[in-house]
Specification:
Chain lengths: 125, 359
């Protein structure tokens, strides 16, 4: 359950942190009901700004993956199997479309993309 | 005599090996980027320091042994031994500063920071594996002391008008105090102050920053886990043995009115044994779990915190909410001076010394 942030990457730190937490949920390493460290303790251990951690926690909250509770607790609510609402599927579709479109525009074959898709999904549960 | 000499040996050995006890990523209080941990010059610095301090300590020790064969008086010998002890400590501190500056210069000259890639790392499962003793463990001694104070006041009338408050090494009383409402609980009060600061320290230990390295992640996590666990055990051992000794002492003299019980001195020796022996055990445990950087694959390194340290000794970091931080040089913890609670701890630690000087 390692977090590894690279300040020289073009992706902002808060985004990297949010992405890695989401990936841990996808892999099942962070399960529904698990608590994340408080914003302050996460910032202390990583050695980054409190506001950076807070920003990525808020992003996860917006996505409906964690629930921020008083006493600085953050509880994972994503990752469980449930009936997805139509709008959520739509959200994923909308997010995915530009990425796939870019891949096609860059010249990737549809077969390559499907195998790529399966390969990534295999890493997760 | 033997006691003084063994303290001298203990301090001498400790000062000599200190550069090797710290994390490999800090050398003389300077953060070393992970790819440079095996740098030849750093190894030479450490070796030279140890050789110099070691040989001075050995020379002073031989000097003391030789003195034993002359007709020197005991008191003079003890005094001289302490002077030599402080000489060794001062020389070690001076050499530390010398190599601290040299290491800093080397880091700057070769521009290490430009050749490495800083990353921020942490392990989410670390806190679950953390075995630092819970602060509630440090509440029990406080309750015992409060009970002792209450019990003392319940028996206030039975306490003699003058009671013993100081003993010499032979266990004879050489200091007495007149009974007042405050005087009868001075010792429990000092004990209480120390216990409360230990309690605050235990809270600080639990929330202190976890320092992982980017390349030896698992090894550095193990070292951290060990340092936190055994550090808190050591703190608890000192806390409980000190509480035991002082409670027995207070109960015997004030309540039982027995001013020279034969078990006072052995008790004190047991306490010394726990604190010194515990420290040796702690250092042994930690040196066994130091991380290694034998196979470095990348030029990545964990973030450097030099800018928050003065001379590698004093830590002031407003962005770090924690009270305690691991020392950059040697083994143990130091306070974050940007945290206002740190002044309370410092006060409690130095209060008994001030009391001894001014009262």
């Amino acid at each position: 359950m390692n977090i590894h942030l690279d300040p020289s990457s073009e992706l902002q730190l808060y985004k990297q942190l949010a992405n890695q937490l989401i990936e841990l949920i996808a892999k099942g390493k962070l399960k529904n009901g698990d608590t994340l460290p408080s914003v302050r303790s996460m910032a202390t251990d990583l050695g980054i700004n409190v506001s950076t951690v807070s920003k990525s926690y808020h992003e996860l909250e917006e996505k409906g993956l964690i629930e921020l509770k008083p006493k600085a607790k953050a509880i994972i609510i994503g990752g469980q199997k449930k009936e997805l609402e139509e709008t959520e599927v739509e959200k994923v579709e909308n997010a995915l479309k530009p990425i796939l479109a870019e891949a096609i525009a860059r010249g990737l074959e549809k077969d390559q993309m499907t195998s790529l898709f399966h390969r990534i999904l295999k890493q997760w549960k | 005599m033997l006691f003084i000499l063994s303290i001298f040996i203990f301090v001498g050995v400790l000062e000599t090996v200190t550069p090797y006890l710290a994390r490999k990523t800090t050398v003389f209080g300077v953060s070393i980027p992970e790819p440079y941990v095996q740098h030849q010059q750093l190894l030479i610095f450490k070796k030279h320091y140890s050789m110099m301090v070691g040989s001075i300590a050995v020379a002073c020790f031989i000097g003391q042994i030789l003195l034993l064969f002359t007709s020197i008086q005991d008191e003079q010998f003890v005094l001289l031994s302490f002077v030599l002890l402080y000489v060794v400590l001062l020389i070690a501190a001076g050499l530390y500063m010398f190599y601290h500056i040299k290491t800093k210069k080397l880091k700057k000259q070769e521009n290490w920071e430009a050749h490495v890639k800083t990353v921020y790392v942490m392990d989410l499962s670390f806190r679950d594996r953390d075995e630092v003793l819970s602060p509630t463990f440090f509440v029990l001694p406080i309750i015992i002391t409060l009970a002792l104070i209450t019990f003392t006041y319940m028996n206030y009338n039975a306490i003699p008008d003058v009671f013993a408050t100081h003993w010499n090494a032979a266990g004879e009383v050489d200091g007495r105090t007149e009974k007042t409402w405050l005087a009868v609980i001075v010792m429990p009060l000092i004990l209480l102050g120390i216990q409360i600061s230990f309690f605050i320290i235990s809270i600080g230990m639990k929330s202190a920053k976890i320092q992982l390295s980017a390349q030896a992640k698992e090894a550095s996590a193990n070292r951290e886990l060990n340092q936190r666990k055994y550090g808190s055990w050591y703190l608890a051992a000192i806390n409980y043995s000190m509480t035991f000794v002082l409670v027995v002492l207070h109960y015997t003299t004030v309540i039982l009115k027995n001013q020279t019980a034969p078990y006072f001195f052995p008790l004190f020796i047991v306490f010394m044994f726990v604190s010194l022996g515990g420290l040796i055990l702690l250092i042994w445990k930690l040196s066994n779990s130091n991380e290694r950087f034998d196979d470095l694959q990348t030029n990545e390194t964990a973030a450097d915190d030099d800018r928050y340290w003065k001379w590698g000794i004093v830590y002031i970091n407003k962005n770090d909410p924690s009270l305690l931080v691991q020392k950059k040089y040697g083994v143990g913890w130091t306070v974050n001076l940007a945290n206002k609670w740190s002044y309370i701890i410092l006060l409690v630690i130095f209060l008994p010394i001030l009391l001894v000087i001014f009262i």
